[in-house]
Each structure stands twice: as structure tokens, then as C-alpha cells.
Amino acid sequence: MLRVAAQAVAKRAAPQWGAAAARPALVPFARCYADDANLLKTALYDFHLEMGAKMVRVFESTETDRPIVRWFTPRTVVITARNHSPYLFHRPPPPSYPPPKKQVPFAGHSMPIQYGDSIMDATKHCRTEASIFDVSHMLGSSIRGKDAIKFTERIVVGDIAGLKNGTGTLSVVTNEHGGIIDDTVVTKINDQDVYIVLVSISHLPNPNTVCPYETDNFFYLSQNGGCSEKDQAHINKHLAEFKKNGGDAEFIVHADRSLLAFQGPKAVDVLQPLTKLDLKTFYFGMFTETKIDRKDVWITRTGYTGEDGFEISLKKQDTVSLTKKLLENPASRLCGLGARDSLRLEAGLCLYGNDLNEQIGPLEAGLTWTIGKSRRDDCSFVGGDVIKKQLADGVAKRRVGFKFTGKGAPARGGSVVKLADGTVVGEITSGGFSPVLGENIAMGYVQKAFAKAGTELMVETRGKSTPAVTAKMPFVTCHYHRPSA
User: Fold this and answer.
1) CB 349 within 8 A of CB 356
2) DSSP classification of residue 318
3) Residue 97: closest CA among 26, 30, 27
4) Residue 336: helix, strand or coil by DSSP?
5) Do the beta carbons of residue 264 and residue 307 sit within 8 Å?
6) Does an H or E element contain 172, and which?
7) Read out DSSP for 15-69?
């Protein structure tokens, strides 16, 4: 039955793979299970298990004409063709295989999807209390040298030179065609250093090349989701060209640090007794080096949940100790990837690989504001000639939110957006049930003519169409700690 279902999926998706593409055959099921022995472990891995993290196992076929089993629970298998959206099938695992725990492969790491509470409860907890996320699949690296700003502005679209010291901005890294290689947060500490949080340390250079934080001149550049190898190749390529032309900059990786995201309205109350830093005047986007519970950390007031919060970079050997200290407060809980995805969707934030990719530019993604105004005349970054033309002429599609006016299954990536007459005008890139709103929400791309909020459309999921309207994002009110007007 599972094989038949997979073949049916392949047949339906054939046009997206190319008309001549052979239909994928399902890899024999009994041979597809693998434990996470080959996945990287963060400093909190054993602690995740101790705290009841629920795990999921994974494998990927090395044969390009076969679908990939991304993850499974005792009754569910998610199968995707390469570069295609997931389809759900149901089947219990072989009797000889132990029941899986819900730890998922993510950016080359074994990461928790949830703990003892449900994803719905965990999402609500972060909106009202304080949640700790292990985001150590992201790893710090630095660009350093007297031309650090100049090189940073070569690879990102933001106005980094115009930032005040110790403040940051969301930006994007673009390719030669103006597509987004990654989304990133850049914090200018001073003029001669940049810190980049990459994702998968399976592709990092020798840890002996790690340079500790030892300079007063520093940038903080935080990159998201599963792009480590690609990001590093892109940075190194353009760095080599930059240095060949006389530029002074170096790219250095920090393999000895973990990263925690501490999010929620009570995070500040939990954190303040543990640090001398005055968090009342430490506003959204600010970065500094300080101590928390007597541990040296790099802290930024930021996050990816829509709530007030912090990202804390610290030595790996201090990670478990600080996590335990934060958990001593009853307002704090550990939170996994499942709730993190719900939270960022409710906040209208993009997930790279779903909502952003190298074929989508910042204008289409609704991220025009990330392009510094001072940079729009010359667009002197990679892909700037394409983006400059888009700024003048506009783009054909836009990222929008969706709310649903009829009952139906939650939309998922790949769900088709149509007019009432069946004309296809777009596609969903992320979707699901909002634990906070108690309704299905989604985001995706539609033709520009249908992007205005309130436009009535149909979203087809699993062969059934549900009426929906385009909606402004975020779906929930975001709470960022900013100075009073």
C-alpha cells in the first residue's frame, strides 16, 4: 500500500520534476531506517534525552530518482521527492525496530522536536512564559579585518555602515541572480569584525582554526536554517575575489560555542537576576558581551518567535549548566523544533527552504525593507543589478499570509492556490494550525494582482479545496522590547 501511494504521489508531481522524469520507486521500507549515529550532537543532546525530548529517526536515499523519508513516528512516514513538498503516509514501523523517539535530523544535527508537553502547549507557553530553545545547530563564525564592513556589504543587502555600534538588522545574503541564499541578522559592534552564525558544523573547518572573542571590533551576523555548506562556499568565493583585489578581511569559524534562544514575555524576568547587564535599557537588536550566572556570553536581544527574548552564545562546556540554571525558574521550559515552527509561522517569519530560496528575491519575499535605502542607488552587493531592476520595474509575485474561511485540512508547503474557476495563481510555502489563534494559517506566494489583503482564493490540500483570504502578517501581535516613543 505504501509503495502504491508513493507511486501515485510521483505521478501527480511528475510535471514539477519534468515530464520526462521517471516516477520514483519507494526504497524498500525495511532497509530505510537509520539511527542518528551519523548526526552531530549539540552540547545539550544528552540533557535533551534526560529531560524527555521526543525524537524522530531519518534516512535519505542517495538515489536521485527515489523519494526521501524525512521522518516518522510510530504511525506516520513523511515522504518527499527531492526538492519537493512532503506527502504523508501511515504505516507502523517493522516489529523488529524499536519505537522511535522524537529527535529529528535538522541541519545535520539530532535535534528535539518536542519534550513532555504537546507542541500546542509548548507554543502557548512561549507566548505567556519563557522557553529555552537549543539552536546550537547554528554556529558562530567571524569576518575580521579593516575592510570588514566593505566585505559584509558585498554579501548582504543591508546598510551595515549606517548601523550604530552594538545594534543590528535583519538582512539577506543574495546570489548573482538576486535570489536569497540565506536570511541573516547583522549586528555592528565596531568597524572591523563580523560574526556569522552558520548552521551545520558537519561542514566546518578544523576546530583548531577557531578564534576566540578577543577584539573590541566586532560584527554579529546570524544566519538561519540548514545552509552552512552553501553559505560558507558563497562567502569564501567572494572573499577570495575581495582579497585578490586588495581587500583586508578574514573568515573564521567558532566551533567551540553553543547558541540558546531564550524567548517569551517572562524571559527578561528570569534572566535579569543572573546578570549585571541592565536589560531594561538593552533593546531589541542590541548585542553585547557580558556574564550570565558568572559565565562569559555574547547576548543579542532578538529571536524568531515574535516574542521578546534573547539569543545567548556561550562556550559549549557552559551550556548544560546555564540551561539548568534557567530551568530553576518555574516560568522556564525547554522547547523543541515543533513549537519553534508554529511560533515563527504565527509571527509571519520565513523559514529558509520553505518560504525563501535561491529563486526568490527580497522584493518577492516582502523583505524590500532589508535593502538599505542608502544602497538602493548602486545596489553594490552580489546580485544587485537584478534587484536594482526589480526595484524599478516591480516583481510578478509576492509573499502573503492566508487565513481560511472554510473548514479543511491545514495547508502545507506545495498546496496550490487557485481562483474560484480553478486558475492557479500561487502556492503555499508554509502552513499549519495556529495553537494561539485556534485556526489554520499559512503563507505563500501569489501573483501580484492577487496579493492585496482580503483577496478571496481557494487553497487545494490533499485534493480538497478550502476557501481562504489573503491576510497581513504577522498573524499574532509581536512583542519586541524597544525604547518608548
Assistant:
1) no
2) G
3) 30
4) coil
5) yes
6) strand 167-174
7) HHH-TTPPPPPPPPGGG----STTSB--TTHHHHHHTT-B--B----SSTTS-EE
User: d(Cα 69, Cα 26) in Å, to the nearest integer?
Assistant: 9
More confident residue, 484 or 34: 484
DSSP characters over 229-293:
HHHHHHHHHHHHHHHHTT---EEEE-TTEEEEEEESTTHHHHHGGG-SS-GGG--TT-EEEEEET
Q: State the pLDDT at residue 46.
A: 87
In this structure, CATH architecture of domain 134-330+361-392? 2-Layer Sandwich (3.30)
521500507: which residue's cell? 29
Q: Which helix (H) or strand (E) holds 186?
A: strand 180-188
What is the rounded average pLDDT of the residues 2-8? 43
Distance, CA of 317 to CA of 296 (rounded, Å):
11
Which region, left, alpha or beta, applies to residue 258 given φ > 0 means left and ψ of -120 to 50 means alpha? beta
pLDDT in tens, 179-233: 999 888 888 889 998 777 654 333 333 333 332 222 333 344 444 444 566 777 8
Contact (Cβ atoms closer than 8 angstroms) between residue 136 and residue 44:
yes
Q: Cell numbers 529571536 label which residue?
A: 303
Tell me how crowded residue 11 is: count the other CB atoms within 10 A of its CB: 11
450-461 mean pLDDT: 98
Q: What angle do CA 410, 411, 414 make, to 5 degrees?
A: 150
Least confident of 24-28, 46-50, 232-236, 467-471: 24-28
Q: For residue 170, give the 3-state DSSP assignment.
A: strand
Helix (H, G, I), strand (E, B) or coil at 321: helix
Within the chain, all domains assigned CATH 3.30.1360.120 are found at 134-330+361-392
Task: Round to whole Å and give the CA distance between 232 and 477.
Answer: 35
- Residue 288 bridge partners (DSSP): 299
> What is the pairing mode between strands 219-223 and 193-198?
parallel
Phi first, then psi, for residue 147 (nearest 5°) are: -105, 25
C-alpha cell at 372: 538599505
Alpha helices in 112-166 (DSSP H): 119-128, 148-155
**Residue 36: pLDDT band by 50, 70, 90 thresholds?**
low
Closest CA relative to residue 258, chosen from 105, 143, 132, 134: 134
3-state secondary structure of 441: strand
Q: From residue 276, give the alpha-carbon distance in Å to each of 166, 291, 292, 293, 297.
A: 17, 7, 8, 9, 12
pLDDT at 465: 96
Round to whole Å and give the CA distance between 119 and 213.
36
Q: Please name which of 432, 362, 423 lies closest in space to residue 120, comparing C-alpha atoms.
A: 432
Q: Which three cell numbers stand for residue 71?
A: 521522518
